[in-house]
## 1
Amino acid sequence: IDIKEAMSILSSRANDGGDVELSDEHQRGLPAKVAQERKEMGQTIDLDASDLQWAQIGQAQQQRQQCPCPPPPAEEDAASASAAADPDAQQKRRALEQQRKKNEAERRSELDRMSVSELLRAATSAQSERTLAHKTYDGGLDTVLSTGNITAYPGVVAAATASFAVLSDTINAIRTTLMEKHGRRDLDKLLGDLQRHEKEKLSTTAALHLERIREKNEAAIVGAASASADTRVHNMLQEGVTTLRSKIEELVEAINETLEEIRYAILEEEE
């Protein structure tokens, strides 16, 4: 899961001071302070578990002064810090990479023995597993939000990333086999479309997760304040959640249409 892409989705609306779809309708005539608040929405979310925590009573003003939080460290810095904390980190990464290459070689050997229709069925099977992985990923966030245990979320992301990586590798291997062994550029393009839609769906889902965490945190701030608390930021976050959910629904529809084309291709191969 590329958190940077998720952050990019959230920050894209900041170019015009809000969601692109909502900016024209809602942005005009807003006071300068509100416009600035909207510009800052979604631009910086630090996934460091020590920084992701629910707002506490009496901290509302402090939270507002501290937001937006500093951006997360660069991947290179994070990797260096991890290696410094764990002397065996590089060795572990090398071992994992070697295991991944071994798994890929075994997978390619198995795929080479399959017919075109079998390869396509393997792709649809991997896609079904990916749908279950999405449900597990979303369920992990729901648990985090319901329990307030935000420190568990990085583990949710790590587990989901591992699942999606394996499934994506499988479909990419199928694409390679279809091209190299069967010369099926048409089917390679079809699976490429599926991968592209899924990649965008995953990034958008990650963005939705981050937005829901911020919305939960802002709700705690508003709830801790008086009845006359300013709810504009919370309302804007709710709008952001709604927009991202709609985008995911559109992507699911595109994915289903692509899967339908793949099923037709299977029938044609088996005739």
Note: Residues 143 and 149 are 8 Å apart (CA to CA).
## 2
Amino acid sequence: MSCVRLVLFLFCVATDLHVGRARMENRQMRSYRQLCPPGCTSCSAINGCITCQPNLFLFLARSGMRQQGICTHSCPTGYYGVRRHNYSICYKCQIENCETCFGQSFCTRCREPFLSYRGQCIDRCPEGMHYANYSKDCRPTVDCMAGPWALWSPCTRNGQNCGYRYGMITRTRDVLESPSPNGSRCPSLIETRCCLMEMRRCVGSDFTTSIIDNMESSENVSNTLLQCSNEHN
């Protein structure tokens, strides 16, 4: 009988030790994970992130002789991302003078003043090729590319925004990419339209009134715009 009690006692002690050890390990693991930066699934106090969540890349940032692991959604400039079955990691571009690359041997954008051509960085376009200043690469033909329209200017006439029935408004846009000699020409970069002055008389006159208040119908407005257009053509 005493042997049975001894066995039960030892079994209970062993069980308590196992449960206590498991609880301690769980607490240590939770505390350890709380110290990891966001996105890390495991980390080191010295080297930062060791593994990342499945949708993130592991980027090893060098600081002196040490590498610090960082989990990021996209690789920084000068690096490209590779997704593998168990992890995703950032590798440094191996092409000289490359700023951004797609894979180990294909550069998509070079550091100034170098140009991108067939995945490599060169100092001038080959013969028969033309420099595209917006995309900073070499092409057989470069068409003009205009930017978005700016906002319309205030309605003015002869430098004034009052004193007249109608005036003109103007908007412009810039050339983002200049065309090569064999490329398409640039579209119109300036656009002008007639407009109705808000104030017929300027401040300081006997009275000021809105031109729209004096218009009897939409037909009169159309006639005024037509008069404006005919006079400025």
Note: The CA atoms of residues 17 and 208 lie 94 Å apart.
## 3
Amino acid sequence: LGILFFAFLSFFEMDAVVVDGVGRGVDGGVDGNGSNRNKKKPQSRRLSQRRICYILIGLIAVYTIFRLPFTSFNSSDHSTRTREIEEVVPIFDESFQKQVGEVSIDEVHKRGLPHFGAIVVVYRKQSGNPNGVVEFLLGKRTKKSKVCVGDWLFVGEHGLEGEKATDMALRALREELGLFVSGDKIEHMCDAHVQHFYEEVGHSENQYTHIAIVEFPSYQDIDLNDETEAVKWITPSALMEEVDNGEICNYALSKLVGEITLSVCKRLTSEGLNCNVDASVYHKLTPICDMEVALPSSNTDAQAE
């Protein structure tokens, strides 16, 4: 807008000395040789135009400075603002059918209270690969994550009151990666009941988890929050090797990641994409979306029943 205003006003400044169709020089005379009686008029007009230009540019600058943090896809305060409303999460009865209250996230994990959450698998086609091989996006967890610090995991969030599966997935992308996509781009694949006790930190997970996938919006840049230190792209085959070796946090989480990966690959393969993963090799793992979701049980291992 500033450039357009400069061009617009410069045009009139160049033409400011044209009066009644007769060209006048900068001294106000005809063809530069006129009398002195018109000298001040073009100069005054040019000064007035400059003032208008400065005012307009100033207003644009002020508006941009104050508006940008609220409209930028990569606003640095996106995690700070949303974090304020994440201090408490709704908890449910053992059947996950009725909300019974709201408590802090820390309290939820200390007591293993039933709650909702979402895991989002972000994928893209591998650059330069003609075979349609895909890659998954993993985030490296910081110390603020409290569990699995330093490990690479899928994007995920706890559910807030009134949120549906798609809402959770959208918020996870927005808060952890700074990515904004429309709801119709999110595919809710299935649900799973995840239970596990993290002995090293006294953290108990009892979450009804929505599993979703989304294609990476390549026109956007990733903007990390304080719970994600870095991101990396990994092929499903390489990820399954890590799962097979138990390299992801612990055995239970490795198993869960493997079950999610097999389900996502099954879905993407049906769309003509290539995960380059032979599911038969991992016969001990069942794709998570092939399992029947059951009510919570007494088993403390990571389950996706």
Note: Residues 40-71 form the longest helix (32 residues).
## 4
Amino acid sequence: ALYTLMAACILAQVILATLYGPSSNKASKAAQGEPVDEPFERKRGQADGRWLELHKEYAKEARTTTQRPDVVFFGDSITLGWVNSPVWEQITKRFESVLNFGIGGDRTQHLLWRITNGELDFAHRPRCSVLMIGTNNLDSDLPQLIAKAALKTADIIAKATGTTVLLVGIPPRSKYKDNAIRKKADELNEILASSTPTKNKVKFIPFPDVLTKDGVFTREFTVDFVHLSNNAYQKLAEKIIPEISTCVVHSKPHDRER
């Protein structure tokens, strides 16, 4: 039932992206008054209660874990999209008790609200966490503020779980490199790469290279110049699976402490 709900959320996110687009004026207005680096419950456009329902499902999953999850994924529709890709099976077969806490359309402030309202209340804390967040903020917020919020989110997760957070750079945005949103995405990733404090259990993982030599984001790797194709998820999996494995191996000797 949970994954049926997750699939419905992915479909809803794609429809909203088609109608309004992540960089539309309507999306920008929806974010007005929401501090990018403070927890903010997502209420606009949520008359059906789907966002809150899915959050409650995730919080319940955290509370009722019967063993330590190897890895938990936190993020927006790109994170949620893993579960509809055949590549996801490579991760679920490789690791034990894999959880996905992605919700389509979430901005940094929405994920901050989720993790400070139950989604980190694990009965058994995960051995590793994967975080990708910020692409939905690009239309309304400065890259410096988005980076600050993403790092704050990673730090909260790291402190709550006591283990490493892999902070993954966001994918390219838009088809061409001269697009304004693409430039903001690039700047955000540059800030994260230079600011991530590895000594505090947060490790930055650059998004894999999915662009042509001319900087074009092609349909080989994206379905709409925001969300990822299976080929892109495959390249991302090849990059993060070894990192997750390292986290898990280093964490297992301390299982009795969790």
Note: Residues 12-30 have pLDDT under 50 and may be disordered.
